User: Fold this.
Amino acid sequence: MDRVKTGIKGLDEMLCEGLLPQTANLVEGAPGTGKTTIGMQFIYTGITQFDEPGLIITFEEFPQQYYHDAAVFGWDFEKLEKENKLKVIMTSPEVSRLDVESVGGMIETYAAQMGARRVLVDSITHFERLTQDPVELRLLEYGFINALKREGLTSLLTRESSTLLGEAPEGDGQIAFMVDTYILLRYVEIESTIRKALLVLKMRGSDHAKDIRQFEITDHGIEVQSRFEGREGIMSGSPRRMADSFVEAFVKR
Amino acid sequence: MDRVKTGIKGLDEMLCEGLLPQTANLVEGAPGTGKTTIGMQFIYTGITQFDEPGLIITFEEFPQQYYHDAAVFGWDFEKLEKENKLKVIMTSPEVSRLDVESVGGMIETYAAQMGARRVLVDSITHFERLTQDPVELRLLEYGFINALKREGLTSLLTRESSTLLGEAPEGDGQIAFMVDTYILLRYVEIESTIRKALLVLKMRGSDHAKDIRQFEITDHGIEVQSRFEGREGIMSGSPRRMADSFVEAFVKR
Amino acid sequence: MDRVKTGIKGLDEMLCEGLLPQTANLVEGAPGTGKTTIGMQFIYTGITQFDEPGLIITFEEFPQQYYHDAAVFGWDFEKLEKENKLKVIMTSPEVSRLDVESVGGMIETYAAQMGARRVLVDSITHFERLTQDPVELRLLEYGFINALKREGLTSLLTRESSTLLGEAPEGDGQIAFMVDTYILLRYVEIESTIRKALLVLKMRGSDHAKDIRQFEITDHGIEVQSRFEGREGIMSGSPRRMADSFVEAFVKR
Amino acid sequence: MDRVKTGIKGLDEMLCEGLLPQTANLVEGAPGTGKTTIGMQFIYTGITQFDEPGLIITFEEFPQQYYHDAAVFGWDFEKLEKENKLKVIMTSPEVSRLDVESVGGMIETYAAQMGARRVLVDSITHFERLTQDPVELRLLEYGFINALKREGLTSLLTRESSTLLGEAPEGDGQIAFMVDTYILLRYVEIESTIRKALLVLKMRGSDHAKDIRQFEITDHGIEVQSRFEGREGIMSGSPRRMADSFVEAFVKR
Amino acid sequence: MDRVKTGIKGLDEMLCEGLLPQTANLVEGAPGTGKTTIGMQFIYTGITQFDEPGLIITFEEFPQQYYHDAAVFGWDFEKLEKENKLKVIMTSPEVSRLDVESVGGMIETYAAQMGARRVLVDSITHFERLTQDPVELRLLEYGFINALKREGLTSLLTRESSTLLGEAPEGDGQIAFMVDTYILLRYVEIESTIRKALLVLKMRGSDHAKDIRQFEITDHGIEVQSRFEGREGIMSGSPRRMADSFVEAFVKR
Amino acid sequence: MDRVKTGIKGLDEMLCEGLLPQTANLVEGAPGTGKTTIGMQFIYTGITQFDEPGLIITFEEFPQQYYHDAAVFGWDFEKLEKENKLKVIMTSPEVSRLDVESVGGMIETYAAQMGARRVLVDSITHFERLTQDPVELRLLEYGFINALKREGLTSLLTRESSTLLGEAPEGDGQIAFMVDTYILLRYVEIESTIRKALLVLKMRGSDHAKDIRQFEITDHGIEVQSRFEGREGIMSGSPRRMADSFVEAFVKR
Assistant:
């Protein structure tokens, strides 16, 4: 089965060559971890390297914000939109939910007309605020992500995590159980510096890398790098040095 | 008493040859830990190795999702369903609860007609969302798992744990007190890598392994491996190296 | 004063020869720690070794479940029930509460007719779900455990703790303040293995062992063993090795 | 000013010779820590050593329970009650609150008639359940403890702490701000054993010992012993050995 | 600008010679940390050393309690009140709030007539219980503390912290953002002893000491002493020895 | 693109020469960390060094408070206001929200008339108290910060964090996801002293320093200094010494 490459250096390798087609893929992180950048790069790569048009469904930011943010990385989203390869759709969770479940809805229409293959949903967190009832929310979210699959789209969903370091004490949302891939972005404090970590926790139907890797947001987008060495407790955000360095110091004498 | 083998390498050994017949067995874990895979392998093993037909009761995913997910491991669920050895029943907690308590309900009918011996309930978490009243919920859950026993079925129930690392701060659900076997799946961070751990915490009427073992999801299903060595606090998800390595380093000099 | 022996190896010694007559004794633990087994052994010992008939008041499980669970240890509860030495009463907290406060109620009648001296209440947790009002609950629980004392019964009450490792963050229930004896069962992770610990925290009117001991559920029931050596923080469920082993390693050189 | 001696070995010394007259003194602890025993000894000492008659106001236990519990220590409360030196008053928070604020109420009458100087209120926790409104509760509690002072009584109030080890995460009640003395009882796990610790946190109008001391419940009542040596974090209930022992081991070589 | 000296040894130095005039200054601590003593000493110093009359606004304790508590330190508050240099006003948050906002209110009248320059509000915590609405509460508190400033008063506000060791998990109140100075009192466990720590966290318009100092309540009032040496995590209430002592031990050999 | 310099020594360097024009920039911290001082310095620098007039929108403090607080640093805000280069607008979240969305509102009018380029919103926390509904709040906040951008203003928003040390357990607000820059101020306890730390966690469209730096409030405003050396867990507020110092001590011998 052909993989849907994100074009993100290091990430495709972690995903064993890329995402699986027509799957829903969650990227979760605290503010500033780079969720939207990963999503934009996923869309940009699809259009420019694989000729796969893409949609961006936004529940908050205006299209201009995406043009502006993409331009920082040298990605000309306005031009792509004019070439009918990209469509930034600003909508609300309520509307988009009904839309994807209607025949001939806006998203279906755009997808069909453009031949869209990829979609960025930024952010699925806005769905979580639609209802206080977890049963209803789960149905809404499940219906939405499956409708995107039925349109033939591979989706990347961003999700906001309000805890800056480590895991939210109350645990994370239910959507992680429904998606095919679950990618976590985390801040990690090492030597008085805040670094960024990426982990593929889950990938249905495929093997994937299990290690926690550093990544950076560079001038050209995301770059996933090597794993963290010599530290325990990285997922806590405040890792401790492993005792190994100690032991080595003694033993090598 | 004959054991109901899961067919999962290493797990049957931990269970002293397998589950006990007509028992309810809980498998709990965070997203991506492999709950459903364990359940599918339990059903597949029953059909193909022991000629025990099986049911899958799903409250969310469509049968196609199971066909697809099973195919990754080389298990042809569509074919088994056509051979009347497997039935994937998509329903709701409300309906299934009433169904199992009626004479001649759907589950009873399928079980009788197929001679089903095993059932996967994926996931029992959906029951927990039926009511806010813990007394009522407990009655509903107890009634449901006992009805399955009365049908002569050995059940494997999956349960979602929303905490990624370690234990949920508010503790886990009441169902753990009602089931016969309680199996925990956990993520464990070791040397910048996320590994998976399995523990049999409880098994009524049988001895069982008490150690925490690593496991992997391979191309052919679940493989339970050796225990974790030289680490303390594995259940926290962020174990620390044991001081032993220290002491050894000094003493061996 | 004669002691009411539990017959559990090691536990009677911790209790300075046994429980005190006509007292209420609480055994609290997470799922699978062996609360009910301790209770059944307490009842079985009474009947078979001390000729003290016993009652089991159950708020959830059917009598058959007790017959079955007891049989695993070689205890023939069905036979004892036929001999009128044991009575398993399946009821509800509401009914049992009213019953014990009525003259000539069912529990009183059974107790009198059988000459019962011991009772297992499995589990008192079901009382805690009767009302949201802590004042009312406390009155209900207090009334119930005192009514059992008035019947001349020594009671063993099981209580469910939903936290798997360590203490519930919100603290434990009020009933611990009302009972005469408070026994805690805990899981403890040591060297990648889950062991079981038992502690007598409180025993009104008697001295008792203060140490935390390991125990196992064997083919013949519960066996309390030696204390944990060389570990700190056992009650947390994830003890750390004591620094002593370190120091010794250096000093002994 | 003459001190009101508790008669508890070691505690009077910590209190610089005893409590101050006509003060309210709080003793707080988890189940089994010995709150009521301290209170009974305070009353017994007053009657038998200082000829100060005493009252016990109980909101839950029957007088018989106190007779029984006191007898374990060789204290004959029934006899004292017949000699009109002790009165155990079983009442409710509602009644006692109104009573102490009325002229010629029951408590005032008993106190006057017996010449009572000391009172044990077991437990003030029952007041905390009178109302959900913290402002109202504070007024009720403040009014009650001041009314006792106006009767010329030195009061010892027990308070239940539901957290077994360490401090309640939500902090403790408001009453600690209103009393004159605040004594904490705590469980401490050391070398696989649960010990008991006592600390005088606050004593208005007097100096007091600031150290955390071990205590035991012996055949003759409470005995406060020496402080804990070589441990950090005692108040957490799970102290760690201090690094000192380490350093010493190395340095002494 | 002239400083308003507290007269507390060591504290004025930490405040760079004293509080600023017409400011609101918060002192927060657990029961028994000495909040009220600091406030009384602030008032007493003003009257006796600087000829600045003072008010005490109390929402709970009777004037007699202050006379009594002050007398322990040799401060004769009754006499000062007779000399019209001190006024203890027992009121409620509701009344005092309206009072300070009225022309010719009681507080204004007393302040004017006495020429009061300092006020102790004991405790501002009672304000926090006036309303559940944080917006309304903030307005009430802000209005109150500014009205005191308008009267020309330098205020010292005590605030109750119900967490005994370390910080309240839910964070502290909003008032800390509104006051000019924020002084924290904390319990610290060191070598099995509870010591008291004082920290000036914030002081608008002035430099201040940033270190955490020990203090004691002596026969003559508060004495702030040296900082804590060789400990990490003092604000947690359970500091650990710094590794330095370790390193030194090795290195000095 | 020209940068908007804060004029704060060290901070502009961390921001790669300054903030981006027409962006919303969040500064979050506990009481006393210096949020408002940073904001005032940002405004003062704009006026005096770059001839960019500024607005201060305050939801609580009176203009006089800003004049007073600024004067401490030698900044004459009253004079600047008279010169029409600064305008302190005291308003409410409700009014300001409607204002910025109206044509010819007060803020627009001031901004246009003065040629304002910078605005300090002190504090955005007051918005968070406008509604309990997170969806509505998010809309309100988003609308407000975008309206400021449309006026051509670069905004600095302060946000109150009520947790003194470390991160709020419940995570921080949603606004962090909407702003362009997210700067955290934190207290850090080191060697019995409370220091201040600053971290730029997020900066849209620009690189930025990733390290955690110390800063001080001096007589002339904020000074950002070097990073913390040799400590782990700075963001927790209670860092531990890194094991390195240990190892070095041994290895260097």
Notes: Chains D and B do not touch (no CB pair under 8 Å).
